[in-house]
Amino acid sequence: MNDLLNGPEFLGTHATFRSDATLILILITAVLFTIGWRLAVQKRYQAHRWVQTITVSLNAIVILSTMISSFMINILPGIPSKLNQGSYAVTKMHGLAGLIGLVLGVFVVLRGNELVPKGLRFANYKLFMRTSYALYSLVTLLGVVVYAVVFVVGS
């Protein structure tokens, strides 16, 4: 399995199979988050909750299984000496915004499924959902930039 994940890419860049698959999965979650947003706009709240819950779970699995280890192996050793250089700077912004987005997104989903203590339940649910969606969209865009800088331009 490790040979497959670290084997040749399939998108025509110098990325590994794992990086290409991660990009595809994250783009799928972006589409699913947008579908969930549209369901909320259409006042189909039950379907919205299910789509967002599944998508946050998939997103968290991708982040925890690939992105965190990649950050620790490829970026962390270059901090602080390379912090403001090319792919390090973009990846740093992507990682920080992604961590905040992941925590906020998981919290919003837990709140939406009434799985947080009453004292942590916020009243302005739309503000938190919209903030989470906007942040996720930004992080996805930064992730595409990181992929392009590292595997397309940097090749």
Descriptive notes:
By secondary structure, the protein is an all-alpha fold. 74% of the residues lie in helices and 0% in strands. It has one domain: Four Helix Bundle (Hemerythrin (Met), subunit A) (Up-down Bundle), CATH 1.20.120. The model has no long low-confidence stretch (mean pLDDT 86).
In short:
With 155 residues, the protein is an all-alpha fold. It has helices at 2-5, 17-41, 45-74, 86-112, 125-153.
What's the structural blueprint in terms of helices and strands?
Blueprint: H1 2-5, H2 17-41, H3 45-74, H4 86-112, H5 125-153
Tally the beta strands: 0
- Spatial gap, N to C terminus: 25 Å
Share of helical residues: over 70%
Provide the CATH topology: Four Helix Bundle (Hemerythrin (Met), subunit A)
Q: Looking at the structure, what is the overall shape?
A: globular
| Number of spatially distinct domains | 1
**Rg calc:** 17 Å
What is the overall number of helices?
Answer: 5
Coarse structural class: mainly alpha
